């Protein structure tokens, strides 16, 4: 199919300006960025080897430098034409050397990313520099999605919605097919409908396997009366969708209807709690309370959701232990589940964007209980 409409243009220079404000707040003169996803977010560069140096006061960006190796000489010029590019295989060490040549002073490094060995190598290179550990600054910016990012997320969610509809339409969920066959067919359909990659290993879990939250598809065959839990996503423009739907094959029992209705009510409570200024742990609590009141709190064995974007799991976590509050434009999943070991389970998950007037739903597949004939 044709390349998807990229929508609004990405705003890399604005993102770097926002990072510079954080560098001033964190009292470092520059940040050495070595996480490749953070580099992609700040520059558009998608190569597999890079380091980036961003200066706190460098509003004209004369000093902003990206370093990569010879394989990416053309690509870096195309993807980051506004930045000074250095070509050196030891990209991070070269950037530390440049910071030293420019007598930078306090240079932050991403202490949640850099290994002990890399740190040792930086220290050996860092003549006259003060290397300062900082954590999660770019990730903090990445939580709030701009118009370009929401466009990519929506396109990824549409690819997943369309693929699932096509799977059901072709009779892809029927007794006798294996979990693996269903997973591979759904993945193929996502590619047919615009995905550039799958967001993570597709989960198809039938019958008792549906009680395993992150079951890996096996040769188990779908059977009449089974719950079939499908958790999957597409990647478009680097952005990940994430959606779970649970179906019943042939005929739903009273027990299945009761559990499904409970999880659906908990999922609605979670979605309705999403608003700017709300603590992430309060969103988890709003959904979890529905399941606890029904007496099944012990069977909801994971957090309610997570941020989603250039990575399938990113900040903020939405869990009992979550910290911080939501902001307008934060993209998250809401995915409560109830799992009866040895019997079956239900999870229902959407990808949404937090908005002042109520969350923007990006995954549109129906959440009504669907009994597949
Ligand atoms: N939907 C997969 C996950 O959140 O881990
Ligand atoms: Mn998820």
What is this structure's SSE topology?
Blueprint: H1 12-25, E1 30-33, H2 36-43, E2 51-55, E3 65-68, H3 73-79, E4 84-87, H4 91-101, E5 106-110, H5 116-125, E6 130-134, H6 137-142, H7 147-169, H8 179-192, E7 197-198, E8 203-206, E9 227-232, E10 234-236, E11 239-240, E12 243-249, H9 254-273, H10 280-293, E13 305-307, E14 314-318, E15 331-334, E16 337-340, E17 344-347, E18 350-353, E19 360-361, E20 371-372
Parallel strand pairs: 1-5, 3-4, 5-6, 12-20
Antiparallel strand pairs: 1-2, 2-3, 7-10, 8-9, 9-12, 10-11, 13-14, 15-18, 16-17, 18-19
Helix pairs in contact: 7-8, 9-10
Bound molecules: glycine (GLY) and manganese (II) ion.
Features:
2 domains; elongated; 373 residues; 34% helix; alpha+beta; dipeptidase; six-stranded mixed β-sheet; metalloexopeptidase activity; protease; binds glycine; four-stranded mixed β-sheet; proline dipeptidase activity; binds manganese (II) ion; EC 3.4.13.9; Creatine Amidinohydrolase
């Amino acid at each position: 199919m044709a390349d998807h409409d990229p929508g609004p243009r990405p705003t890399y220079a604005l993102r770097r300006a926002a990072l510079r404000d954080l560098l001033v707040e964190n009292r470092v003169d520059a940040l050495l960025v070595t996480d490749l996803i953070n580099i992609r977010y700040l520059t558009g560069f998608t190569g597999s080897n890079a380091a980036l140096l961003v200066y706190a006061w460098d509003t004209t960006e004369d000093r902003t430098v990206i370093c990569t190796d010879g394989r990416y000489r053309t690509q870096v010029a195309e993807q980051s034409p506004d930045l000074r590019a250095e070509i050196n295989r030891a990209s991070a060490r070269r950037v530390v050397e440049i910071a030293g040549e420019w007598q930078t002073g306090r240079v932050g490094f991403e202490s949640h990313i850099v290994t002990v060995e890399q740190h040792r190598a930086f220290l050996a290179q860092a003549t006259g520099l003060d290397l300062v550990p900082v954590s999660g600054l770019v990730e903090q910016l990445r939580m709030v999605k701009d118009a370009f990012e929401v466009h990519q997320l929506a396109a990824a969610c549409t690819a997943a919605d369309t693929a699932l509809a096509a799977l059901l339409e072709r009779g892809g969920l029927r007794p006798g097919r294996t979990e693996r066959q269903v997973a591979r067919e759904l993945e193929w359909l996502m590619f047919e409908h615009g995905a550039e990659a799958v967001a993570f290993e597709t989960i198809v879990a039938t019958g008792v396997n549906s009680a395993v939250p992150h079951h890996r598809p096996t040769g188990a065959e779908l059977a009449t009366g089974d719950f079939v839990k499908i958790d999957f996503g597409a990647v478009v423009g680097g952005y990940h969708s994430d959606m779970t739907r649970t179906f019943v094959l042939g005929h739903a029992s009273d027990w299945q209807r009761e559990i499904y209705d409970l999880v659906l009510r908990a999922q609605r409570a979670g979605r309705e709690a999403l608003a700017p200024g709300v603590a992430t742990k309060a969103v988890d609590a709003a959904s979890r309370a529905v399941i606890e009141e029904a007496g099944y709190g012990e069977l909801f064995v994971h957090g309610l959701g997570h941020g989603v974007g250039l990575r399938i799991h990113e900040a903020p976590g939405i869990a009992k232990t979550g910290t911080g509050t939501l902001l307008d434009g934060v993209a998250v999943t809401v995915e409560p589940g109830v799992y009866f070991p040895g019997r079956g389970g239900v999870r229902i998950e959407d990808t949404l964007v937090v908005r002042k007037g109520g969350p923007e739903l990006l995954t549109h597949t129906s959440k009504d209980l669907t009994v597949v004939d």
